[in-house]
Structure formats: structure tokens, C-alpha cells
TrEMBL record:
<keyword id="KW-0808">Transferase</keyword>
<protein>
    <submittedName>
        <fullName>Putative methyltransferase</fullName>
        <ecNumber>2.1.1.-</ecNumber>
    </submittedName>
</protein>
<feature type="domain" description="Methyltransferase">
    <location>
        <begin position="50"/>
        <end position="148"/>
    </location>
</feature>
<dbReference type="GO" id="GO:0032259">
    <property type="term" value="P:methylation"/>
</dbReference>
<dbReference type="InterPro" id="IPR029063">
    <property type="entry name" value="SAM-dependent_MTases_sf"/>
</dbReference>
<dbReference type="Pfam" id="PF13649">
    <property type="entry name" value="Methyltransf_25"/>
</dbReference>
<dbReference type="GO" id="GO:0008168">
    <property type="term" value="F:methyltransferase activity"/>
</dbReference>
<keyword id="KW-0489">Methyltransferase</keyword>
<dbReference type="InterPro" id="IPR041698">
    <property type="entry name" value="Methyltransf_25"/>
</dbReference>
Length: 234
């Protein structure tokens, strides 16, 4: 993730009113993600090790994993404020969690090979440009144990769209459908998307995972704007 994208993402998600409105009004299908991810996570062993790339304030992980008997959770995010909120949220996990503030790719590189049972990535990988995305996905495959799961939710580019057209569609939706946000909040979100979003198509996402040895197990959520998948390391 380049420095501008890191800075822009940090600025956006430190505006907590925007983030909370997105979740509260389900603008990015977080309810569906919780349901589908939690179902997949029933496979995580009791000694399971979990990595969350772009954990934010921990809302998604907390709702997905709170009934899962895992051993260790590592959450990574570029926002220090998000990490602080996640630490408060996860207190009941009694030392089973570690949080790191920093670039997702750099933190992922420090994880040993074949040491992780589950990798979560919700709305984070699209902030990387194409070749950097491929590198992140390759490291996800590297750290997963055989049979380990990669649950990936992200903004989606339609097959007929280029990046610019996809970004224009997303920003139009923010301006016209996110009515719970103030005009200023909508424009802040638009600025973030225009500077930091590089969405890929469903075909690109599934092929990129397959190329590094992760097979598509299930399409979990897919609508005209967002997609989520469960991949398994073969």
C-alpha cells in the first residue's frame, strides 16, 4: 500500500461517524458478512490462529469470532485510533489477541509460513494497486496452513468496467444512496474512494487466489458493488 493510500485510509476511518454510519445502515453489507463469515469460521480449530488484515476497530472480527474457540488473533490496521478501539473491544478475549499498527503487507511478511488457520480481509485489499495486491495474496497463501481459509470481502469492479468507471459508480452511489451521512461526510468518503480505491473484478480476484494455490470454496456475498469469498489453501 503506497503512503498516500495509507494516509487517506487512516484519515477516513478516524472519522468514526462515517464508519459507524456505514455499519449501522448496512451500506457495505456488513450484516451479511458477519453471517457468512461466522458460518465459515466454525471450521477453525480450537487451537486456531487467525490474522485479520485491516481489522479497523474490530467490529467485524468481534461479531464473527466471539463464539469461536480460537487460540490467537492478530489484527493489523494502518489507523492507530482504530487499533486503540479494537483493544478496548477485545478485552474479553483475555490475552488471546495481538494488535499491530502498520502497513498490512509489511506486517504480513513477518508471519511464518504455514502457521495460520484463517486470514480475514474485509474491504482492505482494494487499497493496494494491482501488483501489490498480488503480493499480498501470495503472502496470504504462504502463511496459511494446508486447508486454511482465506475469507475475502471487497469492493468489486464489474467485468466491463475499468478502474475509473468503477470508482465513478461507487462515488455516485455514496452521493445518492448514503442518506444517513451528512453532505460533508459523503464528500469525505468520495475523496477517499477517488484517491485510494483500486477495485478488481470477481474473475480477477478468484484467478489471483488460484494462481497462488487457493481454491474457491464458496461465493459468500455478491451484489453489483461488493463480493465476498471463501478460499482454501490446497
Amino acid at each position: 500500500m503506497d503512503q498516500d493510500a495509507i494516509d487517506n485510509t487512516r484519515i477516513l476511518f478516524e472519522q468514526w461517524e462515517i464508519y459507524e454510519a456505514v455499519i449501522r445502515h448496512n451500506y457495505m453489507l456488513h450484516r451479511e458478512l458477519v453471517e457468512s463469515f461466522a458460518r465459515c469460521c466454525q471450521r477453525v480449530p480450537a487451537q486456531g490462529r487467525i490474522v485479520d488484515l485491516g481489522c479497523g476497530d474490530g467490529w467485524l472480527a468481534w461479531n464473527v469470532l466471539r463464539a469461536i474457540p480460537f487460540e490467537q488473533y492478530l489484527g493489523v490496521d494502518v489507523s492507530e485510533a482504530a487499533i486503540e478501539r479494537a483493544a478496548t473491544r477485545f478485552r474479553e478475549w483475555n490475552g488471546r489477541f495481538t494488535l499491530r499498527n502498520g502497513d498490512l503487507a509489511a506486517q504480513l511478511m513477518e508471519i511464518p509460513d504455514s502457521s495460520v488457520d484463517l486470514v480475514l480481509a474485509s474491504y482492505s485489499i482494494h487499497h493496494f494497486q494491482e501488483e501489490a495486491k498480488r503480493a499480498v495474496i501470495a503472502h496470504v497463501a504462504r502463511v496459511l496452513k494446508p486447508g486454511g481459509l482465506f475469507l475475502w470481502a471487497d469492493v468489486m469492479r464489474r467485468d466491463e468496467e475499468n478502474y475509473r468507471q468503477a470508482v465513478d459508480r461507487v462515488t455516485h452511489r455514496i452521493r445518492t444512496e448514503c442518506e444517513a451521512m451528512t453532505e460533508r461526510q459523503r464528500e469525505m468518503a468520495v475523496e477517499h474512494v477517488e484517491s485510494s480505491d483500486f477495485p478488481e473484478s470477481v474473475e480477477w480476484m478468484t484467478q489471483a487466489a488460484a494462481q497462488v494455490g487457493m481454491s474457491l470454496e464458496q461465493s459468500l456475498v455478491q451484489d453489483p458493488n461488493y463480493a465476498a469469498f471463501a478460499f482454501a489453501k490446497t
